[in-house]
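pasting for ref
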Amino acid sequence: MSNEKYIWATGKRKCAIAQVRVFPGDGGVTINDRPYEEVFPRLEYRRMVEAPFLATDTMGKFHVTVKVNGGGMSGQAGAIRHGIARALAKENELFKPMLRKEGLLTRDARIKERKKYGLKRARKAPQFTKR
């Protein structure tokens, strides 16, 4: 597959970064050299990965290879979805409004807030005692 023409894009979510390559092909999704069903056993995350194809009605028309690292399961699934959506928008300009309408081209900017000194977490304060 390395000599075929492909469209690439980068997707991000939380701390996860996904490098996505979209080839014309059979509709398989490979994540870190493993099928996506094996990487994401939960149906919720599989639906996230399939969302850009369902929005553009291109299920089974593209083969996708992904290199993803950082973050957890949810962040990685979101990063892959973002990357696939960006690659499809690059591939065909007509897909852009469909993907935009579903909110798939927007980078979800919510990241973990940093811990503040004197607190247990970002906002959780230690228990207050009067006496």
